[in-house]
Structure formats: C-alpha cells, structure tokens
Amino acid sequence: MGYKTIVGLEIHVELSTKTKAFCGCENAYGREPNTCTCPVCLGLPGATPVLNKGAVERAIEIATAFHMRINHKSTFSRKNYFYPDLTKGYQITQTDEAVANDGYIEIETDDGPKKIGIHQIQLEEDTGKSLHTENGTTLMDYNRCGVPLVEIVSDPDMASGLEARLFLEKLRNTLRYLEVSDVKMEEGSLRCDVNVNIKNTETGERSAISEVKNLNSFRAVEKAIDYEVARQIELMEKGESELRATRRWDDAENKTVIMRVKYTASDYRFAPEGDLGPLFIDDEWIEKVRAGMAELPDVKIARFMDTYGLKEYDAKVICGSKKVADFYEEVAKHFTDYDMLSNWFMTEFLRRVEVTDEGEMNVPFEGKDFAYLLEQIKSGKINNNAGKKVFRKMCEEGEKPEAIIEEEGLVQIGDASEIEAMVKEVLAENPESVEQYKAGKDRVVGFLVGQVMKKSRGKANPQMANEMLVKFLKQ
C-alpha cells in the first residue's frame, strides 16, 4: 500500500518598511511595549487607515522574484474574529483579489529540479503580541499591531518535510537578497504554518488535513511534517479517521499536539474594507520598482559561474549568503586568480568564518587583506601551510597579514643554494631512504621533502625541495 504526502505552507513575512501598514507609527522590533502606537493601529473610533506605498512596492518585488502575475487591481477586506491581540476586532487583509497570483519557487531535489507553486501573496497587517507572565496574567504589547505583512500561500505541491524545508530556505534567502524583510523566525518576522495530509494511492482515500502551528525553525517544519505523515498513515492503516484539526509542534517531545478540532469551516465574515479603496498597480509602477530591485540569488549564481569560473556547487554555497557573496566580490577586486580564490573560500574561509542561519558573518579583516595574503602565497613569498597559519591568526585576532608574516618570520626560503644545502644534509642523514628510492620506492620522496621542511622550520619552498631531491636521488 502506497501513500502520497501532500503539504502546503502559509508563510507570514513582516516587511522592512519604516512605518506600519496603515499609519505613520515606527515599524521597529524591540521597542518598549506600546510606545509605537497611534489611534489608527489601536483601532480607536474615528481613526482611518492610509495604505503604505513602501509595503506595496516590497510586495511587487516579492511577486517579481517568484515569477508571479501582479494584478493591476486588488482589494482589501476585513477578516472578523475576536482575540485580545486584534485591536479593531478584525484584520485588514486581502482575499479573493490579492496583489499577485500564480508563481513558483524551484527547488533542487534528488530527482532533479522541482517547481513548487505559489497560489498568491496578499498584503495585510500584523496583530499585537501577548506576553504571558509567571503569575498567570497576560499582558498585551501593541507595537506589532499594524506592521505590514505579506502572506505567501503555496500550492500543496510539496511531498515531504525535506521539500518544505528546501522551499523555505530558498524563499528566505531570496527575501534576504531583496532586503524586504530580515526574515528572522526568532523575532517573528518570518512565521510559517503547515497544512499536511496523506492520500492512499491505491484507494484514493485522503486523511483529514492537520494545520500545524508553533514552528520556530525550518528544522521544526521538516520534523513536524514527517511526524504528521507517520501519525496519519498509522491512523489510516488502523481504519480510524479524525476531523480536520489545528495542532502545535512540541519541540521538547518532538511531536504534534492537538490544539482544537475544526467542527465547521472557519467563518471570518469577510467584508469589504470600507475605509480603503481598491489598489491599482499599473505597468509603469511595476517597471519602476523592478528597475531598482537587488540582484536575485539565482541570477548571482549564474553570474558567479560566468564571471569567476566557479563550479555550480561552489557558486551555490558562496551565494547562499549575500554577505559571503559580497565579500567574495570584494576580494576578487584585488585578486584575480579566481580558481585559487574559490578554493580558499570553500576550504579555509568557510571553515574559519562563522556564517549564521540568518546569513550574517563577522570578518575581522577587509577583502584587500585577504587578497594580499593570497598574493603572497601565489608569488611564492610564503608557502601554503604558512598561509593557513596567517589566515587563522587573521580570523582570531584581526591582525594584518603583512604584520603576521613579519612577526612569525614566515617568508619562504626560495634561494636555490640554501635549499640545496638542506637537501644534501637530509640525504646524508637518511641513507636508508636513498636505498629505498634506488629500489624503486618513489614514496620516500615525500618523507624526505618533509625532513627538508622540518629542517627549514617550514620556510623552504616545497616544490624546489622536491625537485632538488629527485635530481640528487637520480644521480
């Protein structure tokens, strides 16, 4: 008996505008509670909303990045429900006439590229935030109330937890490149709900959809989906059924927990937002926004492969963080051996420089300093091992490479007569290795090169040492 997993995502992204969606209050995280509020976002009588133009333009950028059809006309509605964090008793949002529809994000799976459809993105406002205290009371912070959001609704095209995680990673990186949001899950600027059910491929029977909330990481999204799939398969094989339900992810127990059963379809009594007219977006506005858009990840990857000759895998790793990609280009301005640069980035740089899940990194030196170090290695002034030692100290202490090379006395010995003298000493000290070479054991050359390097305290040019050793051994 086979089963097909069906997954769709609803993603809320807070937009990085200076002010809120429908008023002039500052859109900022971490301010003192209830200090970024006004009659409009508090829903006081007589206060009317005014749409934030910047929020619309960020939505246009997002729609463009995800290959969506931007609608020339969209409308706002009131989504009615009661909850303490909703000051007006309704949320201003979009429903049937949203800002954009019918897009996709392409992910890489083991079976090749796969397009995950995006049904629509809609502009709306965020709610306030409930703060639960230790003594059992709940306090309300309305600073977040009215912050502009886009809700990104995917098609149910994902077939596993892994595909959902890959989709979210691609989405987050794209939004980070666009700089339309800081997409930090821990701060609530990126939130994701999962809808998952299964289908028996032989009988066509489907399980009830579970909506999973309280997901605070992409790894939690993947684990929650995999858990739900296993749970629903077990129910179906037992012949049991359940109603559509909302569940939450328990990170400590690694399982989903029932929150509430949906006995009837949710009725939010959507009604037109009478204080906001239709939103009209013409082609001229769209083109103006697109002209100012940042370079997208896939475009940057292709450009890095073309300009710097990077392999596809290397380009994807380096462009996985905009900060890393920007630093690579800064170094490339001063050092044009791109093969060597790529090799050092993929090994030493990414091993020593921490890149966070948010794509942030802290490099205690400038791009031209890294370029200087690579130039010293390429020119033979220091050897590769010495270069790694210098780079480690640059990362740990932020010191200039030229100062480290001088302090440590790492300038490579390139004088032929000096290296020749050390080679002769090593051969005289290791007659048994000479005999082994004569007997056809070429591997002893590596050992002898190591002895020369040891005698020179790592300063000898290893290529010259190798060539001289082979020359004298053959004699």
In summary, what is this structure?
This protein has 475 residues and is an alpha+beta fold. It is built from 15 helices and 16 strands.
Give a structural overview.
With 475 residues, the chain is an alpha+beta fold. It folds into three domains: 283 residues, no CATH class; 114 residues, no CATH class; 59 residues, Arc Repressor Mutant, subunit A (Orthogonal Bundle). The protein has 15 helices and 16 strands. It has a nine-stranded mixed β-sheet with strand order 2-6-7-10-1-11-12-13-14. A three-stranded antiparallel β-sheet has the order 5-4-15, with no helix packed on it. The chain has a two-stranded antiparallel sheet with strand order 3-16. Helix 5 crosses helix 6, helix 9 runs antiparallel to helix 10 and helix 12 packs across helix 14. The chain is elongated and about 95 Å long. The model has no long low-confidence stretch (mean pLDDT 90).
